[in-house]
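Task: sequence design from structure.
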């Protein structure tokens, strides 16, 4: 029987085509997101063949943004956010102003009104949450100081766009050049109410959310049901984001970020991040597909020069402004380059703002097409900027610039090697790593920990335990841990591919080093053995062995034949 299934069709065709083109892009050694964007173009309304439901795709993509920002919040604390306010707030404000000025200039050349230019420039000034965070996560710099600056900058931009979206309808008459339509008391009331709502949401999260959210997850965790815990994590992330948007007019992304940040103080934050990861990645792919659906490829030919100018404002003018601002505040060059590359694109807020501007009659439809084209091109180009950044970073690490970055407080640029010898090294301090650490503390054996989470690093150092902040697969981190003179390396992280990279590097540095790793599947065991691990502990096998040993210890001894037992028939 026929079924009307636009939601299922959008998900199946979108993810299926994204997978095929993503694999093809990977084979061609270009970022998979290029394939995702192309998949969106192919299922969009401007190309022949199947046309996915654009409205549903955008809403599904919004779930990806919510889960992504929730995951980022899980790795942040309020202290982390406040620690970068001195650069994030003025930097974001000035960069928005610069991008808006360039947008006004292009609008003037196109013959648009000043109001249209302002809205157009604002749409070009705000970076995409998904693109920025994926780039930082792929390079494992999200929790470094430059990563925290980038996220803080993003939060300020989001707040600015929330305020803009609220004020735009009230200012529409003024921006369209209609005299006598602006009531200043109404405008002041709107601004005050918006700021009051944001403040109320933040206060509610800090006062009530800090108690309720961790309590709920702890209660569910003690039920022993992984299914319920996963459901609780999703309910918290999506529920807080939706409530923030409906009750306080705060963006979904900002609401989810605060929910994650509140939960980051709980010991369950690592487990919550693991449970939300699969859905987060799937919906993030749908975000790129939904972006591709918005583009009419004919615009690239019809308005080639305006599209090029829009693209250059996004990737050059805005990035150059960000670079100069960060350098003016005394931060290292690598930090300034990271922020510049992170902001050299636009995304979801830009689409919303452009659509609202056209709907209110402030901007022509042509401006929205330029915003969409500029977004697609900048997202496609963004991985190239980060690839260039990686090369510059590698060159700087080999030169004098690395020492300058270290003195300026960039903890991930140069690492001081440990002075320990004959010690143990624990990579990852989650549930498994912390249990290993407790055992080592009881025996009195010296050890250090390699961990990415800032909260865990601070807690370890408060106990007097040496800890290195960073990813264990980073060659500099591995060298700083003193593996050639270490006794045992415990690779306690659950990701087998990353664990294999750590094991391979460790074996090259310390041929006599004992390496113990963990795995979940037989294929992972074989991989870790192949790259040099001495002992691989597979959780399921160890649980089964412990159960059998326990049962064997309690079982009565078997009686030998002939001691009075009944004979077999």
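Answer:
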């Amino acid at each position: 029987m026929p079924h009307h299934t636009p939601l299922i069709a959008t998900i199946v065709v979108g993810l299926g085509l994204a997978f095929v083109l993503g694999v093809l892009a990977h084979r061609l050694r270009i970022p998979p997101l290029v394939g995702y964007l192309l998949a969106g173009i192919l299922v969009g309304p401007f190309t022949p063949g199947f046309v996915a439901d654009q409205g549903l795709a955008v809403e599904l993509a919004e779930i990806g943004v919510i889960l992504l920002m929730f995951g980022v919040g899980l790795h942040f604390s309020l202290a982390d956010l406040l620690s970068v306010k001195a650069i994030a707030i003025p930097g974001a404000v000035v960069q928005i102003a610069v991008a808006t000025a360039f947008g006004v200039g292009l609008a003037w050349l196109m013959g648009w009104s000043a109001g249209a230019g302002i809205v157009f420039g604002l749409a070009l000034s705000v970076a995409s949450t998904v693109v920025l965070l994926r780039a930082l996560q792929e390079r494992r710099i999200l929790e470094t100081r430059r990563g925290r600056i980038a996220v803080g900058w993003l939060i300020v931009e989001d707040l600015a766009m929330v305020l803009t979206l609220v004020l735009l309808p009230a200012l529409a008459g003024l921006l369209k050049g209609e005299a006598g339509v602006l009531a200043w008391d109404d405008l002041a009331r709107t601004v005050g109410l918006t700021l009051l709502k944001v403040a109320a949401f933040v206060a509610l999260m800090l006062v009530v959310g800090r108690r309720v959210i961790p309590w709920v997850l702890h209660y569910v965790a003690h039920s022993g049901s992984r299914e319920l815990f996963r459901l609780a994590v999703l309910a918290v992330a999506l529920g807080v984001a939706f409530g923030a948007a409906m009750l306080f007019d705060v963006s979904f992304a900002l609401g989810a970020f605060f929910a994650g940040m509140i939960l980051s103080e709980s010991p369950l934050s690592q487990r919550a991040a693991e449970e939300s990861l699969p859905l987060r990645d799937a919906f993030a792919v749908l975000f790129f597909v939904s972006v591709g659906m918005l583009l009419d490829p004919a615009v690239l030919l019809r308005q080639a020069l305006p599209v090029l100018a829009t693209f250059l404002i996004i990737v050059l003018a805005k990035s150059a402004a960000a670079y100069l601002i960060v350098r003016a505040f005394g931060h290292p060059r690598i930090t300034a380059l990271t922020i510049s590359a992170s902001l050299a694109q636009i995304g979801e807020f830009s689409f919303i703002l452009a659509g609202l501007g056209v709907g209110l009659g402030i901007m022509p439809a042509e401006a929205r097409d330029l915003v969409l084209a500029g977004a697609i091109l900048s997202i496609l180009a963004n991985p190239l900027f980060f690839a260039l950044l990686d090369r510059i970073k590698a060159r700087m690490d080999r030169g004098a610039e690395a020492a300058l970055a270290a003195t300026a407080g960039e903890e991930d640029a140069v690492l001081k090697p440990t002075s320990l010898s004959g010690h143990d090294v624990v990579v990852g301090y989650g549930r498994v790593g912390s249990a290993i650490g407790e055992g080592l503390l009881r025996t009195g054996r010296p050890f250090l920990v390699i961990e990415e989470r800032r909260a865990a690093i601070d807690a370890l150092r408060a106990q007097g335990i040496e800890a290195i902040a960073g990813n264990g697969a980073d060659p500099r981190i591995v060298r700083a841990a003193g593996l050639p003179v270490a006794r045992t390396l415990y690779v306690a992280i659950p990701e087998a591919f990353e664990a294999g990279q750590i094991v391979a590097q460790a074996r090259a540095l310390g041929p006599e080093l004992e390496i113990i790793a963990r795995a979940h599947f037989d294929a992972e065991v074989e991989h870790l053995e192949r790259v040099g691990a001495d002992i691989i502990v597979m959780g399921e096998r160890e649980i089964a062995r412990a159960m059998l040993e326990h049962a064997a210890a309690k079982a009565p001894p078997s009686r030998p034949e002939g001691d009075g037992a009944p004979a077999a028939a």
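Confidence is low (pLDDT under 50) at residues 400-413, 564-569.
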